[in-house]
Amino acid sequence: SERLKAGLARTRKQWGGGLAHMFGLRKIDEDLLEELESTLLMADCGVEATSHLIDALRKRWKRDKLETGDQLQAVLVEELTALLSPLEAPLTADTHKPFIIMVAGVNGSGKTTSIGKLARWYQSQGKKVLLAAGDTFRAAAREQLITWGERNGVDVIAQQSGDAAAVMFDAVNAARARGVDVVLADTAGRLPTQLHLMEEIAKVRRVITKADGTAPHEVLLVLDANIGQNALAQVKAFDAAAGVTGLVVTKLDGTAKGGVLAAIARQCPKPLRFIGVGEGIDDLRPFHAREFVDALFA
Ligand code: GDP
């Protein structure tokens, strides 16, 4: 879609537009593959995904006797789509009621904004949504969530004082009483010094399970695309603490590092539930590999 294309403008410029230009004028040779390799590395695909793609391209070049850059670009589109397709796994959130989504991520990743956008998304799917202000360490996080809820007519469970456990128990009870379909539970993204974020995240997960024996039904990790390769370390740390079952990658519009999705696919594959391509309330969309790759090269 046009909106996705616009959102991905910078990444596209880095490796779509740049590559289209590079490919269009050339015959395929090792120099071209080498240039392509640096472009993919600069777009933060990481060494593993980059060599996987370059190897695949070299094989196809020889096997299919490709000659022009255009032909090679078509193969890259194909290979990239194949690499990213396993990440495509929409989160319908209808296997439990309430379906409890624990949302984690470091401050600044776009966690709060994404919760607001997710609420809007699930509302648009006809679901009743409840927010739980589980970041009890940061008053601003709570206020931001409350404001968002007021503006959009979504109930928010928050407590002035009290810990995440109390908020989560409240939220689960309220969700049951009010016939809520989806609970989006915010969690801390940074703690006062000395306390360890990963211990808090693990604790919140246990608390949610205490409140509802089958929950959390999804542990979503929000990642800022701008952190590039550091995303891999964040996935590993949060996964070890709380068992990450899905990812949201934000700010793909503001970065030339869209290649990080390829690195994730290759090195720590997790379902990529949604991508953020702008600050607007509707700028969060389910990830579709083909649509994403097409938007990059369009
Ligand atoms: P939190 O600290 O993780 O809760 O982060 P916030 O939700 O407050 O977001 C931090 C900043 O990133 C805000 O200015 C958001 O508007 C911005 N942001 C979040 N998601 C996106 C996105 O997909 N694209 C862009 N351009 N900005 C985003």
UniProtKB/TrEMBL annotation:
Molecular function GO labels: GTP binding; GTPase activity; signal recognition particle binding
Any GO CC annotation of this UniProt entry: plasma membrane
Top EC class for this record: hydrolase
Described function: Involved in targeting and insertion of nascent membrane proteins into the cytoplasmic membrane. Acts as a receptor for the complex formed by the signal recognition particle (SRP) and the ribosome-nascent chain (RNC). Interaction with SRP-RNC leads to the transfer of the RNC complex to the Sec translocase for insertion into the membrane, the hydrolysis of GTP by both Ffh and FtsY, and the dissociation of the SRP-FtsY complex into the individual components.
Gene that encodes the chain: ftsY
Provenance organism: Denitromonas iodatirespirans
Subunit note: Part of the signal recognition particle protein translocation system, which is composed of SRP and FtsY. SRP is a ribonucleoprotein composed of Ffh and a 4.5S RNA molecule.
Name this polypeptide is given: Signal recognition particle receptor FtsY
Catalytic activity: GTP + H2O = GDP + phosphate + H(+)
SRP54-type proteins GTP-binding domain residues: 271-284
Major location category of this protein: membrane
Positions with a binding annotation for GTP: 105-112, 186-190, 250-253
